[in-house]
Amino acid sequence: MMMGPKRPKRSLHMTLNTPWDDAYYLFHPIQEQDNFTSYSQRHELSEEDKKVTDALVKIWVSFAKYNQPKQAMTELPDYGRWTRMEPGHKSLNYFLLSDHPLQRGMRSDFRKAECQFWMGTVPQVRNLSKTIQELEPFPILFWCSVAIVILFALIICTLIVLILWSKHRQGSYGRGDNIYLHHARQL
Questions:
Q1: Which residues, if any, are the signal sequence (predicted)?
Q2: What confidence tier does 31 reach under pLDDT thresholds 50, 70, 90?
Q3: What H or E segment, with its residue span, contains residue 105?
């Protein structure tokens, strides 16, 4: 936001680039921190800004009262007709509130790429959580089967060691007996 004497003369909503632009219209004069002067004392609102302010206040009040701004739209016929955006609707309708009569009115596909993320990608990610919950029993089964395989491998290794050890013992006794018998025959 540009401040000071070099600020260009144009509509307030054209110079702000904040997510709360509408607050300046609703709550003017806003007390700024520097010198405690109000915004409207430093920057006079143009007639167009005042019209947009009045329209925005009427639309918000109508929305708060009736859950839709249609009542305000009947009081502001030069702003056009507002149509509700239905859930799952593909065209992303929005109402452009402007001081220029040719620019204001219903529009579609507001920030289509950004909305595609929220309307397309996020639901797919949310659906993944259902799939993950369905797959939760499988890791338990997997680790149980790994434990059983390891147990069988240990049993088989133990049996192999025992068999080899017993054959080794039998073989050494057998050789020892043969040596003893061989010595006995020589005598």
A1: none
A2: very low
A3: strand 105-107
Is residue 93 within 8 A of residue 108, CB to CB? The reply is: yes
Q: How many domains does the chain have?
A: 2
* Amino acid making up residue 30: I
Question: By the 8 A CB rule, do 49 and 99 touch?
Answer: yes
- Contact 73/65 with Cβ under 8 angstroms? no
* Structural domain boundaries, residue 153: 136-186
User: Band of the pLDDT at 8, cuts 50, 70, 90?
Assistant: very low
pLDDT at 41 over 90: no
Closest by CA to 106, choosing from 83, 138, 129, is 83
pTM of the model: 0.40
Contact in structure between 80 and 104 (CB atoms under 8 Å): yes
Q: Which two tokens stand for residue 66?
A: 């009736």
Closest-CA residue to 2 (of 12, 19, 15): 15
Q: What is the pLDDT of residues 160-183, one digit of tens each?
A: 999 998 888 876 555 555 555 555
CA 116, chain centre distance (Å): 12
Any domain includes 89: yes
Mean predicted confidence (pLDDT) in 141-146 = 86
In a domain, residue 75? The reply is yes
> What radius of gyration, in Å, describes the C-alpha atoms of the chain?
41
Q: Which of 107, 88, 87 is nearest to 97 (CA)?
A: 107
